[in-house]
Amino acid sequence: MKIPLVIISVLLSVTSFAQTKGEVIVVKDPLIDSLIAKRIELNKARPTATNPTGSAIVSSMGYRVQIYYGSDRREVFAQQAQFKSEYPKLNTYITYKEPNYYLRVGDYRTKLEAQKFLNELRPSYPTLFIFREKINAPILE
């Protein structure tokens, strides 16, 4: 007699705890929507100092010339400023791989272009190397 009562009570309790369809309410800060809109606006291509045409920057494999490396952060920024004063149209890139900073310049599609520039820089900078890496494709004229 006890077993059928237990079975009936279990069946009734299972049906009473069954899930029913409901409504989901999303609670969020209204600033999230404005931040998403701002991010979309910033990602649209527009003219900048490094991208004067406003077109999308296309990256591909190419070559850069390394003009300085060392562990002193101030020195690498001083070298960058000196180089930018001599060659204002060329892009410079500073990377940090522990324990050194590396200053590389230019976006050259071929090794020959990089080698010509390296030969031009040789009197001013004692340690120059050419590295193959992902570059920002230069604007073709």
TrEMBL record:
InterPro entries: SPOR-like_dom (IPR007730), SPOR-like_sf (IPR036680). The keyword tRNA processing does not apply. Residues 1-18 form the signal peptide. The keyword tRNA processing does not apply. Gene3D superfamilies: Sporulation related repeat. Keywords: Signal. Residues 57-133 form the SPOR domain. This is SPOR domain-containing protein. It comes from Pedobacter helvus.
